[in-house]
Amino acid sequence: MTAPSPRPHAHPFVPYRPERLPVADGLRRGQELFEHLDSRRSVRFFSPDPVPREAIELAVRSANTAPSGAHQQPWTFVAVQDPGLKHQIRLAAEAEEKAFYERADIPQWHGALSQLETDANKDYLDVVPWIVVAFAQKYGVTGAGRQKHYYVNESVGIACGLFINALHTMGLATLTHTPNPMGFLTKILDRPTSERPYIVFPIGYPAADCEVPDLTRKPLDEALIWR
Ligand code: IYR
């Protein structure tokens, strides 16, 4: 028999009893996770080697564990393997990026990006075995009509963070690619207008000769304030 609930509830609640680790064990796990996350880099040079569908499924299962506003889980992940669709995405993304890089009125933005040595060529969108596009559900669509969604950006952002971590854990690389605007993805991937394209994730193994910009992470005292 299950123990009676210690509190009165109007809705179903269930016991939650995660393992309580000894402090030293928790810190060791935290250190290991930090070192693992710190070894991740955004990649723009990919291998065409295949990645099993199961890996994409596992990454989306991980993303799908994210906390979300009112538990509305306002995300959809579209996994693209079809070479024709990938090529359509590449051509449309490159058209937007060309316009972005040719804009003369945003020199500061271009300056901030220069150390990444990016340009309008997005050949990796053809090379990778998968492109996953995260969509944010601006509102829900139910039989009764539109349901307002709360904290959509925060929720989808957290889900995407977990997604990136899951890929890295499987030895896969990705990039948070955000061509601007991204409306073309709604069309190419046949998504409803209730969804907004959020991030394009090219996914694969890094190329054998992959390089990344020599960047460092900001020191902890700039990331963390104690009071
Ligand atoms: N979307 C462009 C430009 C770009 C913007 C940011 I913010 C970056 O961190 C990197 C690139 C591109 O993908 O080239």
From TrEMBL:
Q: Where are the transmembrane segments?
A: none
The chain positions of domain Nitroreductase read: 38-205
Alphabetized GO MF terms:
oxidoreductase activity
Keywords from the named record: Flavoprotein, FMN, Oxidoreductase
Q: Which Gene3D superfamilies match?
A: NADH Oxidase (3.40.109.10)
InterPro entries, sorted: Nitroreductase, Nitroreductase-like, Nitroreductase/BluB
What is the name attached to this protein's record? Nitroreductase
Name its species.
Answer: Saccharopolyspora shandongensis
